[in-house]
């Protein structure tokens, strides 16, 4: 094992361990250790779900481009795409666990699933996608499962042809499932008429756009770390950069299209919602727009694509912007009290009904109308632990299984 | 039978007796309040936002007919009783708080920590307990318990544990202004149906389409 790999395993392993220990501590003490409270009841963990689901789009992009549209230059990255998809969709499901107040009761999802709930649909489609990604990865690896790995290979006469044929057959299904995870995850939020910020038909298509952009960025990074910079891969780099840019522009269009119609109409409720994103969380909004924009402008430049380091940095910049975008799902939904009314007889006053915070605080207010949320250190460590888990899975799989193309490496 | 409530804002004096009765009878942990009363338009309760423009607004679970909280619950822990009341099964709730995100009225409360431990931590006198002491099961489902475990969601249950005793909810009984009434919304001749009809009963945020079964009667215009 190379020095670099060892360091990768060590760091991801340690951070993952820190995450597990911190989660155990949070499980003991309760979610009081987070900075969420009654009026602001979802935070980084649920943003994490949306973030990892988005990152899991790599498999979709690559498999559909290769097998449905015949983009041959991406073929060496197909297995990496399936692997990042599996690692991220698993991370998405794990990231939601620390948000659950009674995780030991999760079996109720199997015993008493309530099919009206978009959360139930999401659990189904995420598991389906995790299974399909794994199956897809297995089929792609099949011709190279030799030596000690031959034990797990199914016996077929011509593994190469078999693999090619079934990958092609599976591609449309994984495409549907992949689109499904973004749409259904968006529906968790966008079905909620009680929260103006979420209640928009733009959210599901926007989730797809964001996912195609950042899912590709994840595969891009993993492929550069696996193969290093290769001039032969230049067409693939170019394809991925173009996909990321196009998807990002669609995302920015969908997002601002939604903002503009609400801003133009100028209803007080919509303006107060927008002001949370643009004023209270203005810096985070600038980050969500300009970091990815700068990233794709850089990546579209041929010079930037001459070095692995600059490409990785650009992709990380895009992912950072998307993380900020996912974080911003919550503030404009929760930092404004839903029950905001014009009091009888006072036409021009907007007034919010305070909500009990949920924690007795000798110095703080019992009832609040604003809750400026920033994740607590416990939430951040647990979230980093999930990121580390995702990295660990990818490292481990590349180390143990024939995922990197040997001829290329 | 569709159980509903009418709150007469003309009669409400803003004393918060209902808030206290609710908190005590239902053994709400420190920091959690199922019921709250404020002065609309004002940042300070009992302070007129404008001269002669003062009224008080009590808000708790609206027991909606199209309840988003019930629809989003992934395990059916939040469910509708035969009389329309929305209840939470304390044994089934997984604590995902999707219902809190779904509710436009902000009435749902989460147990961020263990209630007994919290009372100790925040200096309640040793051994002090309050609230209806027994567990209450409705058709086998645990819809009330005195000591709340951490990690579950709770909210107003229309005092379901008093229903079979023929008792009205604690807030109704405790209201010194007699501003609160419960009754059958399906019966056009019931007290609540009549009041809604005769006194212009309205819902909070009717535009959300939640169809609450809690109605409010508007206060009279005050003299300046």
Looking at this protein, list some descriptive labels.
heterodimer, A: 409 residues, mainly alpha, Formate dehydrogenase/DMSO reductase fold, two-stranded antiparallel ribbon, 14 helices, 2% strand, B: 224 residues, alpha+beta, Alpha-Beta Plaits, 3-stranded mixed sheet, two-stranded antiparallel sheet, 7 helices, 11 strands, 19% helix, globular
Brief account:
The complex is a heterodimer of chains A (409) and B (224). Chain A has helices spanning 3-29, 44-55, 58-68, 78-96, 108-111, 118-141, 159-190, 203-227, 234-265, 268-280, 282-299, 308-327, 331-334, 377-400; strands at 340-341, 351-352, 355-356, 367-368.
**Corresponding CATH architecture of chain B:** 2-Layer Sandwich
CATH architecture of chain A: Up-down Bundle
What is the CATH topology descriptor of chain A?
Answer: Formate dehydrogenase/DMSO reductase fold
Q: Largest sheet of chain B, described in full? A: 3 strands, mixed
Q: How would you state the average pLDDT of chain A, rounded?
A: 94
Distance between the termini of chain A: 15 Å
Please state the overall shape of chain B, judged from the principal axes of the Cα atoms.
globular
């Amino acid at each position: 094992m190379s020095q670099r790999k060892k360091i990768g395993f060590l760091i991801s392993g340690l951070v993952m361990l820190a995450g597990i220990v911190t989660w155990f501590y949070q499980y003991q003490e309760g979610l009081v250790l987070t900075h969420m409270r009654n009026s602001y009841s979802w935070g980084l963990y649920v943003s994490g779900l949306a973030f990892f689901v988005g990152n899991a789009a790599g498999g979709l992009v690559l498999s559909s481009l290769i097998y449905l549209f015949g983009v041959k230059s991406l073929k060496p990255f197909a297995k990496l795409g399936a692997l990042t998809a599996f690692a991220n969709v698993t991370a998405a499901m794990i990231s939601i666990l620390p948000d659950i107040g009674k995780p030991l009761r999760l079996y109720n999802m199997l015993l008493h699933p309530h099919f009206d709930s978009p959360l139930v649909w999401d659990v189904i489609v995420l598991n389906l996608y995790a299974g399909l990604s794994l199956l897809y990865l297995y089929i792609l690896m099949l011709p190279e499962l030799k030596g000690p790995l031959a034990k797990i290979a199914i016996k077929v006469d011509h593994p190469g042809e078999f693999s090619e044929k079934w990958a092609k057959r599976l591609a449309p299904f994984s495409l549907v499932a992949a689109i499904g995870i973004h749409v259904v995850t968006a529906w968790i939020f966008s079905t909620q008429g009680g929260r103006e910020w979420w209640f928009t038909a733009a959210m599901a298509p926007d989730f797809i756009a964001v996912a195609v952009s950042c899912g590709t960025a994840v595969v891009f990074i993993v492929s550069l770390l696996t193969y290093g910079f290769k001039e032969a891969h230049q067409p693939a780099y170019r394809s991925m950069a173009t996909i990321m840019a196009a998807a990002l522009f669609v995302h920015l269009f969908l997002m601002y299209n939604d903002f503009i119609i609400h801003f133009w109409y100028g209803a007080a409720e919509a303006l107060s919602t927008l002001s949370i994103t643009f004023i209270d969380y203005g810096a985070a909004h600038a980050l969500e727009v300009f970091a990815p924009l700068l990233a794709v402008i850089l990546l579209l430049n041929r010079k930037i694509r001459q070095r692995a380091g600059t490409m990785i940095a650009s992709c990380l910049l895009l992912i950072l912007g998307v993380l900020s975008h996912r974080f911003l799902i919550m503030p404009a939904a929760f930092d404004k009290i839903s029950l905001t009314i014009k009091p009888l007889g006072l036409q021009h006053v907007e007034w919010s009904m305070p909500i009990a915070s949920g924690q007795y605080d000798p110095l703080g207010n019992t009832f609040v109308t604003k809750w400026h949320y920033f994740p607590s250190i416990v939430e951040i460590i647990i979230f980093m632990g999930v990121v580390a888990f995702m990295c660990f899975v990818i490292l481990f799989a590349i180390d143990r299984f024939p995922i990197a193309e040997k001829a290329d490496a | 039978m569709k159980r509903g409530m009418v709150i007469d804002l003309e009669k409400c004096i803003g004393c918060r007796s209902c808030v206290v009765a609710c908190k005590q009878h239902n053994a709400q942990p420190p920091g959690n309040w199922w019921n709250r009363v404020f002065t609309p338009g004002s940042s300070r309760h009992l302070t007129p936002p404008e001269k002669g423009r003062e009224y008080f607004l009590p808000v708790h679970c609206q027991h909606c007919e199209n309840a988003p909280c019930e629809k989003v619950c992934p395990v059916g822990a939040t469910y509708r009783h035969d009389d329309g009341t929305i209840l939470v099964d304390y044994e089934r709730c997984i604590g995902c708080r999707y219902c809190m995100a779904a509710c436009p009225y902000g009435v749902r409360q989460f147990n961020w920590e263990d209630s007994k431990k919290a009372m100790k931590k925040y200096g309640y006198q040793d051994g002090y307990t309050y609230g209806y002491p027994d567990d209450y099961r409705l058709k086998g489902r645990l819809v009330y318990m005195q000591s709340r475990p951490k990690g579950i969601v709770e909210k107003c249950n229309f005092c379901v544990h008093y229903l079979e005793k023929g008792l009205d909810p604690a807030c109704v009984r405790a209201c010194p202004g007699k501003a609160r009434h419960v009754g059958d919304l399906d019966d056009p001749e019931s007290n609540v149906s009549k009041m809604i009809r005769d006194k212009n009963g309205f819902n909070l945020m009717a535009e959300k389409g939640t169809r609450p079964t809690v109605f409010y009667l508007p206060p009279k215009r005050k003299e300046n």
